[in-house]
């Protein structure tokens, strides 16, 4: 049984194209969005709006959970106790963001178990950036400042969107993310103003994360598949290129003022168009990574599979408390 009108992929035959929706209901729905009203879970919504939201919020939830893994590998290797505590708290926050987002997606009718199963079976996507390794402590600084900075740009914009539960989850996430940003900045500045070896390590990490960061906001507007629909229904309030531009506007100066730079001689703001220009970021690599063929995709999903299998007895015990379950010893 699926709640809230969710139609699972195997029943996609029943999918309702937008032009076959009830025109009166569709108009009322679009007028509400136009007036800036929030759509709530029990309100009427077109099938395609529901489908798009589930796709996007679910991918976002998976990204938060998988996103804690690259940094998580550094908890035991943090350079001091203060940094270790901050990193533990941050990783814990990211998992909490995943739970908030799964709850928001559930309001649209897709059960959480199915979302997890779609993730570990490779049916659902999650953010490209988390398929790259965190090789040194400087990667933790770059993730904390630049990846979280990119996520804040995206999430602040999306939090003004039309679907109530997603926007409310994002508002809360943004408060916590802005604290992560301070943690990332403090870490990054410590390395940038440290020994020559620390600066080299930081520059090396920035060099490795530059391309995935450019990819983070999605393909160029001319290749974006979903943007038009999502922007019409105010799920997205800025296009991929606009968000990427806003990010570069805010963060390129912050990196350059530390005497470090992004590894792209063509990265510059065009004074006439006010848009950032950069070298071809190899969109083939982006598509390969989001389809499962990145440096760490397999490793990331293996961890989630392991967690799912080893947590099963807890879920079984919680949901069927009268039955006896053997606690696995290994
Ligand atoms: N990582 C993985 N996949 C991505 C991606 C990224 N950085 N950017 C785009 N894609 C995928 C899209 O999901 C889509 O794939 P699908 O049709 O199989 O779902 C495809 O590339 C085409 O992209 P586009 O049409 O531009 O997708 P979009 O309109 O949904 O825009 C985002 C992409 C990321 C901007 C948008 O989904 C978004 O704002 N998501 C919420 C925020 C989020 O997930 N953040 C993650 C990290 S915190």
Question: What would you say this structure looks like, in words?
Answer:
The protein has helices spanning 23-34, 47-72, 81-106, 112-120, 137-158, 164-192, 196-216, 227-232, 240-256, 283-290, 297-310, 312-319; strands at 268-269, 276-277. The mean pLDDT is 94. It has 12 helices and 2 strands; from the N terminus they run H-H-H-H-H-H-H-H-H-E-E-H-H-H. The radius of gyration is 21 Å and the shape is globular. The longest helix is centred in the middle third of the chain and has 29 residues, at 164-192. It has a single domain, classed as Up-down Bundle (Ferritin), CATH 1.20.1260. Strands 1-2 form a two-stranded antiparallel sheet. Bound molecules: coenzyme A.
According to CATH, what is the class? Mainly Alpha
Separation of the first and last Cα atoms: 34 Å
Number of DSSP helices? 12
Helix content: 55-70%
Strand order of the largest sheet: 1-2
Q: Could you spell the SSE succession in H and E letters?
A: HHHHHHHHHEEHHH
Let me know the CATH homologous superfamily. Answer: Ferritin, core subunit, four-helix bundle
Q: Uncertain segments of ≥5 residues (pLDDT<50)?
A: none
Number of strands: 2
Q: Please state the overall shape, judged from the principal axes of the Cα atoms.
A: globular
CATH topology group = Ferritin
Taking all Cα atoms into account, the compactness measure Rg is 21 Å
Q: What class, by secondary structure content? A: mainly alpha
Largest sheet: 2 strands, antiparallel
Bound molecules: coenzyme A
């Amino acid at each position: 049984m699926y709640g809230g009108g969710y139609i699972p992929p195997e029943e996609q035959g029943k999918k309702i194209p937008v032009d076959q929706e009830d025109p009166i209901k569709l108009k009322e729905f679009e007028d509400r969005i136009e007036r800036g009203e929030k759509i709530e879970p029990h309100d009427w919504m077109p099938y395609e709006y529901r489908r798009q939201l589930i796709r996007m919020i679910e991918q976002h939830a998976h990204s938060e959970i998988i996103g804690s893994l690259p940094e998580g590998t550094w908890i035991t290797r943090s350079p001091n106790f203060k940094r270790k505590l901050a990193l533990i708290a941050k990783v814990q926050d990211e998992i909490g963001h995943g739970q908030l987002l799964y709850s928001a997606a559930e309001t649209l009718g897709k059960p959480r178990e199915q979302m997890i199963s779609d993730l570990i079976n490779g049916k659902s996507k999650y953010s490209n950036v988390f398929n790259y390794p965190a090789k040194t402590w400087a990667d933790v600084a770059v993730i904390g400042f630049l990846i979280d900075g990119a996520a804040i740009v995206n999430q602040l914009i999306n939090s003004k969107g039309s679907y109530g539960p997603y926007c409310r989850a994002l508002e809360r996430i943004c408060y916590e993310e802005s604290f992560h940003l301070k943690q990332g900045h403090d870490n990054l500045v410590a390395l940038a103003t440290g020994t020559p070896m620390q600066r080299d390590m930081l520059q090396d990490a920035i060099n490795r994360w530059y391309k995935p960061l450019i990819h983070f906001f999605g393909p160029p507007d001319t290749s974006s598949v979903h943007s038009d629909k999502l922007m019409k229904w105010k799920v997205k309030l800025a296009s991929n290129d606009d968000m990427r531009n806003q990010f570069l506007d805010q963060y390129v100066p912050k990196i350059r003022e530390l005497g470090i730079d992004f590894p792209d001689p063509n990265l510059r703001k065009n004074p006439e168009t006010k848009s950032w220009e950069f070298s071809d970021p190899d969109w083939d690599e982006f598509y390969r990574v989001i389809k499962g063929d990145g440096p760490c995709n397999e490793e990331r999903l293996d961890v989630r599979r392991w967690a799912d299998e080893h947590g099963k007895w807890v879920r079984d015990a919680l949901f069927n408390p009268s039955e006896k379950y053997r606690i696995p010893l290994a």
